[in-house]
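Quality-control log, excerpt.
Job 1 of 2 completed; input and output follow.
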Amino acid sequence: MPKVLVVDDNEQLSSMLKDVLESWGYTALIATEGRSCMETALREHPDIILLDIMLPGLSGYEVCSELKQNSNTQSIAVIMMTALEDMESRIHGYKVGADNFLVKPINYNEVKAIIQKLLKDKQYLDTLEESCNVAKTLQTFEQLLLNQPTNINAPNMVYCKKLLESLNWDAATAKKARTVLMLPSPAEVARKTNLSVEQIMNLTDNLHMGRWLKPMQLFLNAPVDNNDAFRPELEKQNCLKAAELALIVTRYTSLLKEKQDRELTFSILKREAAVNKYNREVLKHLEEILRAEKILESIQ
């Protein structure tokens, strides 16, 4: 049974909405302010939240923003309720992640139609696999087939996670960086099979995410000093920053495995950056992470 959370400090309106929702066969929950909305959402995992903009404490905008930034609640559809009909309010709501709007006084036929549409969309989305989970599963299969230990804490994934936390990039860019680093290197797989690197990369052609994954793999497998040709397509697919981060992480961890010295490895990376187009922002944050690791080790 679909679950709907009503968030409004007007108890009369909340009670009426609850009765109507339950008459339609939904499970209805009520919260009266922003913080309790977050707590209920995390605990009950509703399918849809009817969220008033004007709330005591956190505003509806702030609550919606928190919901959409939290991986545990970002898939919940949010319908914002407002007495304001101006376009600016709606635009701001969409910017913080609102899925739809209702203007008070509420028309129940409109409520029902919007909820049915959002539930249908959610039902479809629930059948799709998240790209990072697909990559993680393929990574595990590849390691098992090659008799390698499965290791989700490999150095490249550790530094990828630290960099993304430090850079605070948008979720879509972060997801692309994690996905391409989880998948085995096409060149490595080609060496262990009878397929060419090109044939390995072509395996993603039938995937929706292949549109951005294949250009990233081409970029990562090209010589560092000769990968400019791939940048226009990476920009077109909105994954240039993710590819540049993956390149630095891959190069750094590869050098670290060889040199076994963080400072020496990073100094080589900085020298390479003087002649290659490494992302300066990512390099700066990597340097800060390595400095923090050194300080932490000295304390221990």
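Job 2 of 2 completed; input and output follow.
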Amino acid sequence: MTKIISLVNQKGGVGKTTTSINLSAALGKLGKKVLLIDMDPQSNATTGLGLNSNDFSYDIYDLITGKCEVKNAVKKTKFQNLSIIPATINLAGIDVEFVKKMLEDKSFQQNSQLKMKLDEIKDNYDYIIIDCQPSLGVGTMNALVASDSVIIPVQCEFFALEGMTLLLNSIIMVQNGMNPDLRIEGVLLTMLDGRTNIGLEVIEEIRKYFKDKVFNTIIPRLVRLVEAPSHGKPINEYDPMSRATEAYANLAKEVISRDGV
């Protein structure tokens, strides 16, 4: 049974895209068929897998605005069991585009467009991972409505919980309305610098706040993890022996064990 998971946090720089890429690749290495969806107009998940706009004809913007069929938006990557629906800067205009459509058609459901498209192909995959932009706008709302669960990456730094109430309220709003089955898959601690005490203090604070929702796996802050996207590779291809490769493999195993997929 397919599991659709969004990586969500309206704060930038917390490891959403890094985790989206590397969790997807790790699941693929474990034999799971994975579709990664880039829902960020910065398109870092797309370029992080070695793709640029010359490599595809359609992107996520074309898909959710009805300019192409979902099968035409999916692009196979060179990595094991991993496909992607890429993004371009065009996605930045989705809020305006959808407001215009709502004015023209009162029945238009602006937050359900991604779900309707994914319903056509989701049975082709074990996991669909959605990399959301650092905001709670239309793109992220589409991801939440389409998802079974969310992973919230939280960096092991001061102010880690800043803005968390707003994010949780948005999740509750979706649960109360458009997607009552949406749940929090887990909170992922990222960017741990083992040389500082603040990281350990944040871990304690996060675990006190979210309890058993926190993944056991913690993603370290490593130079090799930062370098990998510039080479268009997930960490398990760029540096198979890296501690980050091991960490994301462990995260993938945790996700599988929680989901039973």
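Post-run check on job 2. The chain has a mean pLDDT of 93.
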